[in-house]
Amino acid sequence: MEYTADSFKDMIARSCVRKTLSAKSSKLPGTYLQYARADLSQGQSERCRVNAFSNAKRALHCQVDILIKGIGANKLKDNKYSKFPGKIELLQKCSIVSPAILRRINALRNKLEHEYLVPSVEETETCLDVVELFLAATDKLINSFPEHAQFADDYEDGLNSKRVAWIDCVSASGLLHARWKCLEVDEKALSKEIRKEVSKLKDKESLTTIQEKRIRFKGLKTTAWDSVFSRLAVEGSVIVPVDSIDNYCSWVRLLLKAA
Q1: What is 22-143's CATH number, 2.40.30.200, 3.40.50.80, 1.20.120.330, 3.40.30.120?
Q2: What is the pTM for the complete model shown?
């Protein structure tokens, strides 16, 4: 059976290692937004509006660049994705930007890309509001970005999962590593194997000290399940480079479910 990111999209994140994403700039996006608010609070003159709009634009671009680097997309060779519209497209593909926020950013795009724009008061206020909304929507991800996550089937007790998947995002090299273990046996055969394993574990003479400890900690049936899973599960792995954009983004979407 061939496995892709979509094969595991209905699974639940069971554990996660997180990190805080950092900015290239010495100033954080939120600082630029504060500057923009301060600029506009000084008045509605052309100078105030231009400065406020420019600082809001810096805040947005800085936040986008932090996210792009976090998912490893700064390693893309395609120049299309080195420009702001391409970066936004990538964030959309990874489901980082919601459709509602994306529509508002797209409505501003021409103005954001116009180097010598003198915005009106309304345009300036709208820009600041949209940027503030974008920062608020993505700050949590930046402060707690999942670089490694383990997923398993959605069982109430978190046990007896037929599939387990591990995903690592190596953003520094633009690679995503995924590996998995999946049971590919039908329910009838699986039940038979578990009954056989339970019978073995009930035979005290065949138990090791480690097995006895596992049974006391997890229970007989769960210990049997673990043994069957370890013995019968099919293992697989894949290394996905960022240049295979659609495939890469599909794995990033799965990883970010752990966020």
Answers
A1: 1.20.120.330
A2: 0.84
